[in-house]
Write a structure and sequence with these properties.
Length: 420
Amino acid sequence: MSTAVSARAGSGLSSSSRAPPASAALGSVARPSAGCRRQHGARQSPVFRSRGAAMVAVQALPPNPILGAAAAAAFASQTMTAPSLTEPPPPPPAGEGGNFALAQRLRQLQELQQQAQAQTQQQTQLADTAPAVMASARDPGSSLRSAPAATAAADGGSGSGVVGAADGGATPSFCEPETLSGLMRQFVERQESFDSGLQMDGLLAYYRRLGCSAAQVQAAVVEVAPAAAGAEAGLSAEVLTQQLQLAAWELVAAAVAAAALAAYQSRPRGWSRKDLLEVRASAVAGQGLFTTAPIPSGTVLGAYPGRLRSGAEMLTKCEYAPLASSYAFRTGDGSFLDPTDVTGQPSPYPAPGLFWPLPSDVSLCFANEPPKGSLGTNASVEDGSAAGDLLFVACRDIPAGAEIFIDYGITYDRSNYGKN
Ligand SMILES: C[S@@+](CC[C@H](N)C(=O)[O-])C[C@H]1O[C@@H](n2cnc3c(N)ncnc32)[C@H](O)[C@@H]1O
């Protein structure tokens, strides 16, 4: 049996025989990255002829950028060690002036020199253009805006976006986008990284030198890595934004759920068999609880109303609303059910507490104790299966119209009985 608590103003809480003294229970709760420019009109030298051969060797290479890089390195090395093209040719041996064979040889060398200069100029243009092509490849949107200009520059200003063969001839078959992208992909896989701008510029210059057009090279580059990486990066940003939004909503949902759970846990309790009971004036004291139909013994009449409060909370409330102590009922775990508002009067919206829109049935808090000379109690107060449940149960057959009487417990303050 749980305990009804009563307090006359200034007398404090008191509890039933099963509960510890109110003062002890309340006391146990605590608050609670330049390049070299070569001069034009230079004259031949034996070393220059050697360099020309190296360039022919480069052009004959298969479209393998790895081998191409090695050949380009050899070419660069010979170029770096070659004497200046502006050096005068060695004078003809004495007595051989006007030698026709020698003059013919000199003309051949001059022609080779002019060819080399033309190729060098074209390479320089390509080197200047490669970064722009690279940039447009990395940014597909930028590609649409800058590709024509970049292609025109790469083609020596011809304005053609397709004619790009370095020798002005037909474009090699491996420059077809599918083949070229496959070759680039091999390069990327071997390098295990496509981050280096130097690697990319070298790759672009290499395929342009082999005769691929700027447009072909650009298309292959876009297909292989940078464009894919850019698109992936854009997708990642979009996904990241979605995930952040989702996380924000989850946070809001969690906060709402936590608030709802807290409100539910602190909701006012209580219900009664309204089909069998009513509250009306009592001859014993103030309002009383009466049957409206015969009730068999063992019938559950309802659960005691109120918000669950700790002993400390209850004590605080009783300081400003002493009357609440007359209606607060101690539960089996030592907390209290408080069915009163801030004035201490019984209310369907007990206060203080988190907002709860549903009214609670406070009928059971009007049950009195049996007066002297009566048949005694006809209902018992028992702990329910849920925490905070205090059930009123008919402990004998009760006729219609009878008042329900319960026992508040031996420590209940009854000093005001008969004085109201
Ligand atoms: C939980 S209330 C019961 C409802 C109360 N009669 C009312 O009108 O609000 C408990 C208070 O009712 C009064 N009461 C209950 N039983 C009584 C009895 N047998 N004799 C005198 N007063 C009683 C006391 O004032 C007691 O503090």
